[in-house]
């Protein structure tokens, strides 16, 4: 009886904690809405997508190019970082000698801990001038994608590594007993078995890329425009808020909160999509089983 | 015994406190300062120093633009207004006190042979009508136009001087603070930017690969900003409706004293007090 009573206490405590974290998130969204409300009422939501440019001081509020910029930089970064991170984890777990795997893992963990401002500074003084030598101005979508890719690579590598570590030993033993080559076992048994964990890691990395601010401000040029090539500068929604918030008043400030709402919406859509995909896959695999 | 000791203690305390009080009458009260967002961070810093020296004073600093500074000083909503420009002709009813000056210098890479641009050329470069250095006497190569993010005071000074709107500018890179402008130009020999003159001078002294361009033949330096001859600069004013007295006077005197020069330089403005 006492055990179930302590269980009840734990259940109540956990429920309170869970509700608290949800309530905080809801309050933040409500706060964003309240701060954005004045400008949304005055100019309407559509103007944020139809205005020709972003010049809030001149009452022009187009954020569409920044939505595109945010998505382009993050997508590019994930496309670069996911294969590299997964490859690094596979090497570590199945191919590297124990000593090298340990060193590799330690280095990747270290990379994950480096603050974004350091990556941004490196990008500004090394990467941007290098790209500028190819094609000015250097501060560009490409620079943003590369810096973000380097930043999120450790997240992908570490989560993939733990997902692979969590695959039961029986799977690889079974694959070996069936006479599968190491390559075939990885591609057809181990990676599929670990895909939920790998997917979660990539999602986490995507969210980090979408939300990254400082490094992106330093390397991607911050011009509000639709990029025509990888060498064109872009501005992300996060960069927009950070660049202008300190000096914004009135409708300009409210318009920055609309940027924040748009970013929250993007992240929500990404998470829901990933969730749907994962559910579909699980349903599909159980269907086959 | 106990009573006597208490009296003695009381005598000692009053003896030590009395001269201090006599030397400087304690300043106390509340001061409301409103106006230009350019000036607000500086005035906030100065207010902190002032409050530290006068613990019974509370200073409330609010932003809302130079026009609010003028309006609030006139209506009495604020004791002091902040105005980040020279006083207009119809503002003669207000008393103004220049606290510092804000100067903006055009910078290029040190390896760039261009050392002189006319105001017209600068306007055409920033609006995208001139895109190659060879058109202004430099080595052929694309010009990287570095602009500031909307709301920054250096952007306001720049736009007002060249009579431009921000939507007309065709930037290659948009930056936040002065440091980023400096780093962008150092890393890109084809870049042109504008930053506060204090920052640019400091960087050049440190050996950074930058050059400050003169404007209308006047060298860009903290000296020419301080004496008002450099064209790309402006006054930062505190204004009051009547000649200030008491707390307001004490604060304005403090804000114009050499004691705040450090705070002024930290905000990349140019102090005037010697």
Topology:
The complex is a heterodimer of chains A (289) and B (274).
Chain A: H1 2-43, H2 47-50, E1 54-55, E2 60-61, H3 64-95, H4 98-113, H5 116-134, H6 141-165, H7 169-177, H8 182-211, H9 214-219, H10 237-244, H11 250-288
Antiparallel strand pairs in A: 1-2
Helix pairs in contact in A: 1-11, 3-4, 3-6, 3-8, 4-6, 5-6, 6-8, 7-8, 8-11, 10-11
Chain B: H1 2-23, E1 29-35, H2 40-53, E2 57-63, H3 66-75, E3 80-83, E4 95-109, H4 119-126, E5 144-148, H5 153-162, E6 173-175, H6 178-186, E7 191-196, H7 197-205, E8 210-213, H8 222-226, E9 233-240, H9 246-255, H10 261-266, E10 270-271
Parallel strand pairs in B: 1-2, 1-3, 5-6, 5-7
Antiparallel strand pairs in B: 3-9, 4-7, 4-8, 4-9, 4-10
Number of helices of chain A: 11
Please give the radius of gyration of chain B in angstroms. Answer: 24 Å
The biggest beta sheet of chain A, please?
2 strands, antiparallel
Tell how many strands the DSSP assignment of chain A holds.
2
Biggest interface, chains and residues, is: A-B, 32 and 28 residues
Number of helices of chain B: 10
Question: How would a crystallographer describe the biggest sheet of chain B?
Answer: 10 strands, mixed
> How far apart are the termini of chain A?
40 Å
Strand order of the largest sheet of chain A: 1-2
Helix content of chain A: over 70%
The oligomeric state of the chains shown is heterodimer
Q: What portion of residues of chain B belong to β-strands?
A: 15-25%
Parts with pLDDT < 50 across at least 5 consecutive residues of chain A? 283-289
Q: What is the N-to-C succession of helices and strands of chain B?
A: HEHEHEEHEHEHEHEHEHHE
What structural class do helix, strand and pairing data of chain B support? Answer: alpha/beta
Shape of chain B: elongated
Structural class of chain A: mainly alpha
- Share of residues in strands of chain A: under 5%
What is the radius of gyration of chain A?
A: 23 Å
Integer average pLDDT of chain A:
91
